[in-house]
Amino acid sequence: MAPILLLGAGDRARAALAAVRRRPYAWIPVGFLDDDPALHGKDVDGVPVLGAIDLVYELPEAGLVACEPGVRDRVLLPDERWVMP
To answer: Which of 1, 5, 8, 77 is geometrically suited to a Cys-Cys bond with 68, CB 3.0 to 4.6 A?
Structure first.
């Protein structure tokens, strides 16, 4: 099982979390990253919003799910880090 970070914490993120949870043998959702400071420290469907998207660079062991348009282009990381397009 691999840790997963979801980038974004809106409606698309909830749908992505549901998809991740359908594969509990493969992925463990450890948190959301979102640039809205009002969401930091809150939970989205039981998963914490850890902080801003830039924290992704401090958590190199986690796979990534892009939940907002353009976030993958903004976060310049190798394709191997991304578990869902």
So the answer is: 8
**Chain Cα centroid distance, residue 59:** 11
CA-based nearest residue to 67, from 15, 3, 1, 4: 15
Would you state the pLDDT for residue 84? 66
Which residue, among 43, 48, 52, has the nearest Cα to 4 in the 3D structure?
A: 48
Report yes or no on whether pTM surpasses 0.85. Answer: yes
Going 55 to 83 to 17 to 3, the CA torsion angle's sign is: negative
- Tell me if residue 24 falls in helix, strand or coil: coil
Q: What is the pLDDT of residues 13-27, one digit of tens each?
A: 999 999 889 888 888
Instruction: Collect all residues with Cβ–Cβ distance below 8 Å to 63 and sequence separation of at least 6.
Output: 2, 3, 4, 5, 27, 81, 82, 83
Element (H, E) at 2: strand 2-7
